[in-house]
Amino acid sequence: MEQQTSSSACNSELHTSVINIDGLKASASCDHRTVERWKVDDIMALFELPFNDLLHRAQLVHREHFDPNAVQVSTLLSIKTGGCSEDCGYCPQAARYHTEVENEPLMKLDDVVAAARAAKESGASRFCMGAAWRGPKQRDLEPVLKMISEVKAMGLQTCATLGMLKDGQAEQLKDAGLDYYNHNLDTAPEYYGDVISTRTYQDRLDTLDRVRSVDINVCSGGIIGMGENRAQRAGLLAQLANMEQPPESVPINLLTQVEGTPLHGTDPLDPLEFVRTIAAARITMPDSFVRLSAGRQSMGEAVQALCFLAGANSIFYGEKLLTTGNPEAEDDNKLFAKLGLKKI
Ligand code: SAM
Ligand code: DTB
Ligand code: SF4
């Protein structure tokens, strides 16, 4: 299976130049740079391998690039919950959908610091603060900068997911000590319009470019099981893998279906197709941490073990994601002990 170049992964018409990076074709489009390492068809061919062949290949890649028995652990905290103006069809925090999520204002600094301390004590190495915003207004950003500095001072890696960033905001986050910014592409460009209408794919790419340009590590992935087809799962991975510099961290979420959201009632995805997606992410992004993200509660131990075998090497750790449940830390510790995995 060849990994080669062809037309750009960005669907913009605005490509202006083609340059050579390590023999691969790169496009500088808008502000967004891509290198076509992987064609969607080649990623599709990975998905179509016999399951054992796919997992074997993923495991070989994994062992070449990472300690196969080490899993990075991040704890999430929703610092501002609900009431979001956006229409992401999967999200219980969108104001327009009637879910059980109660709106809560931005948390107080001391409460965030206390949650970060508890996360550190239970073994997390990274603390990720999430806010249900389209993007931060300047008056919102300032208290968050303080949270980032204090969490960083505690010796934790810091991550934030605050929505779209405007000019100058990534710089402020960097100065505050932010290590990672999470902003997901969510799905392939072709399926995106079926899920979200209030921001474009290009808006997301622009935010990722802002993050990359100030040297904050990029955390970007998507959601599987939203009714997309296999080619669209491959299309999401192609977008991520063909970034000039792929994300350091790639969260692969299984849709958590929440009553009241438009995607509630979507046909559930075959768990083995989710494992295949993890394996394809591992093969196409060999240097990235692939995070087994939302959806672990519905998977059971065996499917999670297959995901680790397929190359997942990061999880969200702690009994809550943002508004939905996650396995208890104690259960994760038991699973890690059974599998001989260590937390990093
Ligand atoms: N509001 C910010 C934004 O959208 O960028 C940050 C928080 S938002 C909740 C972070 C990510 O969580 C989304 O991009 C989406 O990928 C993921 N997410 C939200 N709801 C989900 C669900 N029900 N199942 C799986 N992943 C979900
Ligand atoms: C990511 O990719 N998944 C996390 C984190 N980044 C912010 C969020 C999952 C949210 C699941 C639904 C909820 O708990 O509200
Ligand atoms: Fe808002 Fe983020 Fe939820 Fe979209 S995913 S509705 S932007 S909180």
From TrEMBL:
Gene3D superfamilies: Aldolase class I
Pathway: Cofactor biosynthesis; biotin biosynthesis; biotin from 7,8-diaminononanoate: step 2/2
Cofactor(s) this protein cannot do without: [4Fe-4S] cluster; [2Fe-2S] cluster
Cofactor stoichiometry and binding remark: Binds 1 [4Fe-4S] cluster. The cluster is coordinated with 3 cysteines and an exchangeable S-adenosyl-L-methionine.
BP-aspect Gene Ontology terms: biotin biosynthetic process
EC number(s) from the headed UniProt entry: 2.8.1.6
SMART domains named among the record's database cross-references: BATS, Elp3
Binding site for [4Fe-4S] cluster: 84, 88, 91
Domain of life: Bacteria
Role description: Catalyzes the conversion of dethiobiotin (DTB) to biotin by the insertion of a sulfur atom into dethiobiotin via a radical-based mechanism.
NCBIfam families hit by this protein: bioB
Recorded family membership: Belongs to the radical SAM superfamily. Biotin synthase family.
Self-association state and partner proteins as the record states: Homodimer.
Alphabetical list of HAMAP family matching this protein: BioB
Protein name: Biotin synthase
UniProt source species: Methylophilus rhizosphaerae
Lineage of origin: Bacteria, Pseudomonadati, Pseudomonadota, Betaproteobacteria, Nitrosomonadales
Gene name as annotated: bioB
